Amino acid sequence: MDIKSMKLPSNWLITSLDSICEILDSKRIPINNTERNARIAGKESLQLYAYYGATGKVGEIDSFIFEGEYVLVGEDGAPFLEPAKLKAYIAIGKFWVNNHAHILKSYTSNKYLCHYLNQFNYSDFVTGTTRLKLNQAALKSIPVVFAPLNEQTRIVAKIEELFSELDNGIAALKTARKQLKVYRQAVLKHAFEGKFTAKWREENADKLETPEQLLTRIQQERDARYQQQLEEWQAAVKMWEVSGKEGKKPAQPKKLKQSPLGLVERIITPKEWRYATLGDLNADVFDGPFGSNLKSSDYVDNGVRVIRLENIGEMQFIEDKYSFVSEEKYQQIQNHTVSSGNIIFSSFITEGIRVVILPPSIDKAINKADCFCIRTFGESYDTRFLAFYLSSRAAFKQIESEIHGIGRPRINTTQLKSFVVPVCGIEEQRQILAKIDLQVSELDATASNIKDQLLKAETLRQSILKKAFSGQLVPQDPNDEPASELLARIKAEKTAQVTSTRKATKRATLDFELEAT
Known about the structure:
This protein is an alpha+beta fold and 517 residues long. Among the domains are: 10-146, DNA methylase specificity domains (Adenine-n6-DNA-methyltransferase TaqI, Chain A, domain 2); 262-424, DNA methylase specificity domains (Adenine-n6-DNA-methyltransferase TaqI, Chain A, domain 2, Alpha-Beta Complex); 482-517. Helix content is 40%, strand content 16%. The strands form five sheets. Strands 2-7-5-6-3-4 form a six-stranded mixed beta sheet. A five-stranded mixed beta sheet has the order 11-13-12-17-14. Helix 4 (149-192) packs antiparallel against helix 11. The longest helix has 44 residues, at 149-192. It is elongated and about 100 Å long.
């Protein structure tokens, strides 16, 4: 809706932003990170002041430019076109502002102005594409819905009351969401300690596959796969010879060694189970192309999909993050091909492990270097059983001591292959997966509901602000001084202040000239 066509209370008006506040951008002092870090080195926290940027506090510094209460609104880098995110905020006390935020001081109410700027539609006032900018000329011309002073106070009080209730509700939803993660891990703990199938094992004791039988079957699958790879290699060599031996000779596949199965010493499991490392299972483990093999300049708008960290959720593929390379580039790095049913494992480890199974929509893709692929083969080990285990707390505890790197804590493929995973018969794996699916689906449904409620809460926040600045949030008082009179008084006070400043400057100039003569 065009703000000028809004139906407002009779004692309200619409004016430009620069008529109701002071803009103090000229007092900002830019400072680079190197200089700021040098200034705060060795200083105690009591010697430092807040250092603000486009969207809030971005650090500290050893001095301050401003003191008091001000409204800061992003100049560039703020989420101007995202309604649910803040574009303006209040800064109080002694602080420094960099040149990525405008600094304002309202002639009436800073909080009223701040709330207004957080619901304003900036689409016609910002420029740029990747990094939007709100220049000072555009800032000054922003139309502001201006209410009587007493009503501004009532509006702010009501907004803060409603926002407080809303924030309490949001905090409760976020706590519940965190608790769901705890429940999920409890489900996986029970699953991989064999508790879900304790009764099943007892009832099917005579049907359980022995470790020796399982080992034999795993090795048979390995041998069959090696034979298939060998035949494919021999065919590739013949093609290479027919084409005049152009390019490198196809590499001969390596025969996998005998897969050992041991007692589970590093993880808690039933006595009937065994363990194996990922490197000993029937699985290929590899990472994506490194360095010059896949550069940022290789990305294109369409082509072969690239799986990145942004696609890996907690056992959930994040579909709406897209990257591509050309078919030509894909041919150069196709040995890193991943597809539907493969496990993708984030090499960067923080509080837990991010792992996902690629969905059917991924027919052919490339994984980035920081996304490991685990591709199981044969029928002795279920891919989903492995993926759920890798997403469990038990798996995280195993690899925790192996994590290296400070800025981006990570593991490598050698460490991943040393993961110890539980091994039991395929039928028991399926029984466990059925139990996991039942309980996790209930948790996922609850999580989805919480997500919907959080989205509704943000929508409600914007609805509150829209009502506030259309005169629908609090009742009007006919005894309030009309906004027109308030604005006229502000203008008169500004004019008087400018006149006073000019006289003082002129007087000082004359005094200086007299002293000089």
